[in-house]
Amino acid sequence: LVFNGSVSGFVGVLLGIIISLIVNCTLVEISISSFFSLYFGVLFIAVGVIILWRIFSQEAGDGMGSTAKRKPLAAFALLIIASGLICFTLEQKWYRGISVVVKVPLYVTLGTSVAFALTFSVVDLVNYILGFLQVAVAKPFIESSSQVYMVLVASL
Known about the structure:
Layout: H1 2-32, H2 34-57, H3 67-89, H4 92-97, H5 100-133, H6 145-155
Helix pairs in contact: 1-2, 1-5, 2-3, 2-5, 3-5, 3-6, 5-6
């Protein structure tokens, strides 16, 4: 029990460090390069649409069936799409001239979107791998509304 908890904690810390590094590098690239701003804008919109599709393509009996699980995930997916649109509006000269009061919410929105998209993708990948490796049909990795909220809070 202690060993499994230690391994799980180590893997969780390692994933958290990797996701944090990716979020920070992404924010730097978006703010200094117009190519990456366009690239991440398209990527955010695509990921947001894919997450919305994954949420609403599940049947009522599946893990995403309840409305309590779909609403917060759909809100974050829409936030990712909004971040994609924000990326299209960023221009380096314009961005330097705006005040901190406007800049901070833009960075918060972009950072939250990157963190959630990565966290959702990692959890979805773990669900897929666990489902692929199991012989019998088992419960999904994330099945209750509390677990969905935990993933959302952890991505913040």
